[in-house]
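ok, trying the design again with the full structure, not the truncated one.
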């Protein structure tokens, strides 16, 4: 008998750290202001070095509007250990005294493969393979390797900073687990159909919004995080509103806080943080 409540197959890419900071009041005195300016210039040099690390990821600074915070640093790195090194380097940097932590979020970029999961279940049924068996595991390994090698998957799993999209929107989310409204109790084929509809909504915004989905199950307080980039922040409102009418969001989505802002290029960081 085919299992119905199995999780979808997934591919994982770069680990992702969002850091929220508030600025302290501007210091009094010419000497104190000069010292803070020097620290800001040092931080600008550090972030410039992290602007584009190729396959090793990137970091970006964003000025947040509202949200009880001033700035968000976003870091993409190949491993969790690499993120730890980034976090430690910032904590040890002299400019850390000018950045008051206001929150953070750890996740890993995820590509959910509902359609592949359903196709493999069909293939297993047709060939008499039992999901969970050794034969099934081999089918899964082969298919994940094939999917992971595609250009599409590589671009999704290791996204670059979209230069033409300086605005950012970040929020965490869960899938609902209420009695009678439990995402995880639904058959996998039903979940796959709803996620396909959801994906079609997102594709209508191709070229206007770049979307990064990262999983945080076991890493942070929510199950997923969504990081959106756009040239026009109104596109955030339009996309998220359209998606609220998809069945998967209407019935099963729970959302956390939202943070929205715009990128501060490394060459402007020193001026941005100068008192």
């Amino acid at each position: 008998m085919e299992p119905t409540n199995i999780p979808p197959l997934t591919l994982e890419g770069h680990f992702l750290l969002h850091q929220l900071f508030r600025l302290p009041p501007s210091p009094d005195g010419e000497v104190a202001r000069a010292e803070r300016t020097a620290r800001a210039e040092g931080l600008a040099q550090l972030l410039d070095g992290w602007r584009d690390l190729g396959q090793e990821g990137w970091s970006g600074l964003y000025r947040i509007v509202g949200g009880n915070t001033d700035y968000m640093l976003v870091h993409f790195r190949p491993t969790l250990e690499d993120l730890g090194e980034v976090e430690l380097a910032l904590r040890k940097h002299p400019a850390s005294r000018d950045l008051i932590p206001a929150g953070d979020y750890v996740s890993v970029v995820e590509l959910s493969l509902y359609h592949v999961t359903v196709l493999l279940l069909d293939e297993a049924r047709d060939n008499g393979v039992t999901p969970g068996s050794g034969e099934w595991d081999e089918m899964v390994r082969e298919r994940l390797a094939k999917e992971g090698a595609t250009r599409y998957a590589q671009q999704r799993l290791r996204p670059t900073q979209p230069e033409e999209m300086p605005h950012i929107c970040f929020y965490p989310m869960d899938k609902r687990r209420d009695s009678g409204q439990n995402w995880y109790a639904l058959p996998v084929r039903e979940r796959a159909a709803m996620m396909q509809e959801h994906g079609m909504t997102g594709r209508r915004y191709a070229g206007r919004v770049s979307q990064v989905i990262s999983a945080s199950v076991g890493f942070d307080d929510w199950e997923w995080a969504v990081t959106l980039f756009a040239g026009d922040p109104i596109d955030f409102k339009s996309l998220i509103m359209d998606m609220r009418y998809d069945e998967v969001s209407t019935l099963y989505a729970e959302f956390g806080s939202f943070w929205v802002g715009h990128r501060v290029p490394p060459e402007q960081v020193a001026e941005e943080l100068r008192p």
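Keeping the full-length input from now on. The first helix runs from residue 30 to 49.
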